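hey so u asked for the seq, here:
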Amino acid sequence: MIHTVRINDSTPSGKRILKELRRHPTSVEFENQTLDGIVPEGYLTGEEFVERGKDKILKYYKENCLL
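ran it, structure tokens below
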């Protein structure tokens, strides 16, 4: 059986649990969603971030007659 668990690694207990799990590489597999290309809901990819930044800057310049 496979279990999906979320562990807060910013707490001492979370760090301890992760350290213990890493001692069992044959039984525990860690998935890194950022390496899988899966973007969590509400997050932006790098390209989306740049495009939104450009759009906001251009809008600001046009509204303030700087362009």
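The radius of gyration is 20 Å. The chain has three helices and no strands.
lmk if thats what u needed
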